[in-house]
Amino acid sequence: MFQLLGDWWMLVGLLVLAFSPMIYLAFGMYYRITRHMTDNSISRAMQSINIASSVVAVIGNSAEVVHLWISPSENLLPTIS
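The structure assignment produced for this chain is given below.
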């Protein structure tokens, strides 16, 4: 998609959204999810993961909205010449 439209905001948004599942890996390693945990530590880990996922989703989607807002309408539908 980036090759067709060629906007840096779109590239940033797509990269952030594509690599957002890495949040689960990072927080899983940080909180050692595979080990035994107390109810309190599970709640703290899940709350941190949910907040981080929401922040990354907002950043990625905001970059996509900025791309749509600042790009001229003629760039949204490329023509074949």
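Interim note for the steering committee: The mean pLDDT is 83. The longest helix spans residues 39-70.
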